[in-house]
Amino acid sequence: MRAWLLSGAARERFLLGLAGGFVLLAAAALALAPFARADVWDPAVAAWPWGLALTDLGFWAYPVLWLLCATGTQRLVARRLPNHDPYLLPIVFALTGWGLALIWRLAPGFGLRQTAWLVIATGALLAVALLPRDLRWLRRFRYTWLAAGLLLAALTFFIGVNPQGFGPDLWLGAFGVFLQPTEVLKLLLVIFLAAYLADRREQLFPRAGAAPAAPLNPFQRLPYFLPLLTVWGFSMLIVLAQRDLGMGTLYFAAFLVMLYLASGQAAYVAAGGVLLALSGVVGYTLFDVVRIRVDAWLNPWADASGGSFQIVQSLLAFAAGGLFGRGPGLGAPSLVPVAHSDFIFAALAEEWGLAGTLAALGLLAALVFRGLHIALRAHGAFHQLLAAGLAALLGLQALLIAGGVIRVVPLTGVTLPFLSYGGSSLVVSFVIVGLLLKLSADDGPRPL
Amino acid sequence: MSPISTLLVLRLALALVLYLFLAALFFLLWRDLRGAARAGQARAQRLGRLVVLDSSVPALPAGASFALLPVSSLGRAPTNTAYLPDDTCSLEHALLHQRDGQWWLEDLDSRNGTRLNDNAITQATPVLPGDVIGVGRVKLKLELD
Predict the structure, then answer these.
(1) In three state form, how does the secondary structure of A275-305 look?
(2) For the segment A351-405, what is each residue's pLDDT rounded down to a tens digit?
């Protein structure tokens, strides 16, 4: 017992092996599902209720490509960053493989696309984690990065499109590839906040008893808060003008978490909570978008076939799933509109049951835990704030959408990290993991 | 075997592998945490601590303790190992450090001086467990395990 799996690399390989077994079995179960629905072994009789064909080479390519991405990443990262956190990669690849199985089941037309995005995201992760330089370039050019992110997001006002053909124009498209700039902006915003707060922590939040680096009167400290508030205000303006409630809430919550981490004062979080509630009330009276969401949250049954159709179908999917679920490919989760994107948690609940949802939440919780653990061990304020902020970003996003689909909080459309369909979301999530890997392998300032 | 029962076997295997993964993950995380906690405890116990005896400072109740570092500083500045928020202490008042397993006390040219068992010290002086260090009007006892 004592000597079992002591080295980080051994633990990582063992967990990744289990994840690989799970993903391959899930793919096999998905291929078997049409036969089980008809209960005959005859491929001609077995109906293909959701348009997945066993002759589709793309379907068979997904477990193979997943396996290549997972083992390749593990090997490269183990060679270049020997001290990296051994739990991040198994968790992330288990979730991603599970997400691919769900997407192939819910919307086979998007399956190959998401598999391609996984390859791109793996490349992005490796690029971030294996860059020979340390992360100073992120800190030094923080205004440049953020300005680029804001510019990209602002471009959607002029040349924005929506791949679905309707709904808000949140994407930039070229040659059939779509990018959601607000996803990139959320990452750049956390990087900026970490860099700014690390540099200005003494002036923003003077410690009692220490020689004051700035006036103690909060109003005289306002100039130090101004860049922070301006940048954050611009980001909020862009997402709110686009009626992207999910991203707006996420930016706001991430901002509060970063302020709390830097100051250690719960008063900021309390004030932010009051502000959020106030803006909810104001939004409810002024904007239809907010009113529909809040009404559907308070009483979805009042308009079950109209404004709250999606949330009602999601609740029914949870009820149909029960403890152990219908089984992969055996439920009817397509009744929830766009189940492969924001509502993937409802599809997971229907086909994998409570057992599946708890496992998914457990994996996400372990991921956030490791992120905070990396933050505790990181060297320097910037690295600590960055690791904690990135972990909080993933956790908050998962809470926001998982809570939304089970009607714990009002529904706001964000993706469930690693599981939902969406290229920008997957790439940004993988870049976050790459940054966390890099931060976890940092042994501190090297001697000259 | 019919397709339905084949799929059932697959589903059981899936559940088994998924929860095996989770169980292994959480077991390893727990083992890591326990190991880190033990290492931290052992380090803190090896070095001992300073315990506040009766003092008239409200911020320092009797019985409060400071874990010692190999080189520990005492004083009014919050950066000290033993942060003593009292007007009778200098910002950097005294230094308590370990050399070859022996603790030494040194006064850092403080305004009110440093005492060891009520005798003012002028140079680095060896300290034994149970000795009382006087910093301003604060009294601290050295305790080793």
Answers:
(1) HHHHHHHHHHHHCHHHHHHHHHHHCHHHHCC
(2) 999 999 999 999 999 999 999 999 988 888 899 999 999 999 999 999 999 999 9
Are A25 and A97 spatial neighbours (Cβ–Cβ below 8 Å)?
Answer: no
Q: Which of B19, B72, B27 is nearest to B49 (CA)?
A: B72
Task: Retrieve residue A311's tokens.
Answer: 């949330």
Find all residues with CB under 8 Å of A393, minimum gap 6, and list them.
Answer: A186, A187, A190, A250, A254, A432
Binary contact (A25, B17; C-beta < 8 A):
yes
Contact in structure between A26 and A93 (CB atoms under 8 Å) = no
> pLDDT tens digits for B80-118?
888 888 888 899 999 998 887 788 999 998 888 899 988
Minimal Cβ distance to A19: which of B3, B6, B21: B21
State chain A's mean pLDDT as an integer: 85
d(CA B44, CA A404): 45
Domain ranges of chain A: 135-441
Note the ipTM here: 0.86
User: pLDDT digits over A326-362, tens only?
Assistant: 888 888 888 888 888 888 999 999 999 999 999 999 9
**Do B7 and A15 make contact, defined as CB atoms within 8 angstroms?**
no
Q: Give yes or no for A29 touching B (CB within 8 A).
A: yes
Report how far apart, in Å, the C-alpha atoms of B70 and of each of A372, A423, B65, B81, B92 are.
Answer: 28, 52, 16, 10, 17
Predicted local confidence at residue A447, as pLDDT:
43
